[in-house]
Specification:
Elements: H1 2-15, E1 18-21, H2 26-39, E2 43-49, H3 55-67, E3 71-76, H4 83-86, H5 92-110, E4 115-117, H6 131-138, H7 143-146, H8 151-160, H9 186-201, E5 207-212, E6 215-220, H10 225-228, H11 231-243, E7 248-251
Parallel strand pairs: 1-2, 1-4, 2-3, 6-7
Antiparallel strand pairs: 5-6
Helix pairs in contact: 1-2, 5-6
Amino acid sequence: MIRKYEKLKALLKEMGSVLVAFSGGTDSTFLLKTAKDVLGKNVFAVTASSIIFPEMEIKNASQIAKRWKVRHKIIMTNEMENPDFKSNPPQRCYFCKKEFFSILKKIAQEEKIPYVLDGANFDDAKDFRPGIKAANELGIRSPLKEVGLKKHEIREISRKLTLSTWNKPSMACLASRFPYGMPIDSQSLSQVAQAEEYLHSLGFSQIRVRHHGNIARIEVVPEDFHCILDEKKRKGIIERLKRLGYVYITLDLLGYRTGSMNEPLKGQ
């Protein structure tokens, strides 16, 4: 693990100047911190802002960049204007990342920065991630993946570096809450965002509200089942989500798992 970390620092040093796609999650925060330590002022962080990203995530990313005195820019992306994205095919993430990375490439060219980096790690290749194809097509580098760093290793090194994101729950854009083929619209995105915000306010950290029309399928880690079924919390969740427009509120007995919407694709 330490050898991989040293290899990462050496790789970043060779690059000289980098633009980092910065979401404020565990991986991109670790990458940004390492780049800042190695390259100093030759680091530029860019964060995407749109309806598909929770506002708190964007605010947290801005605060981190400010604390570390990293040059930071927030850009608006327009996924919801792309019919290929809104129709929500299995390749949805490709269209989103293609737009975002294209903007980053343009910014990097204007700033005369030779490399654009993302926070993809070695484990990401195990899941269905069309966004990786967009990164490859546009020449986006993934240093964490290149040096073989896995998620648990990134968390452990982040902990040793006292990064607040070392144990941050995995996050994905709100569009990932919709089954493939179900069109994505602004109202439904807001519905999901408010439902998850409420669950976070109850103390649940790793949660997803999967949107199946008038059905909300809630995923929490199995250790939290007893909490969500607490009578007071259960009634509060039912009341809040019904006010948001859900008719049926369900708890997924398999619990939270990353990429659960990809499960129907297996074997295809």
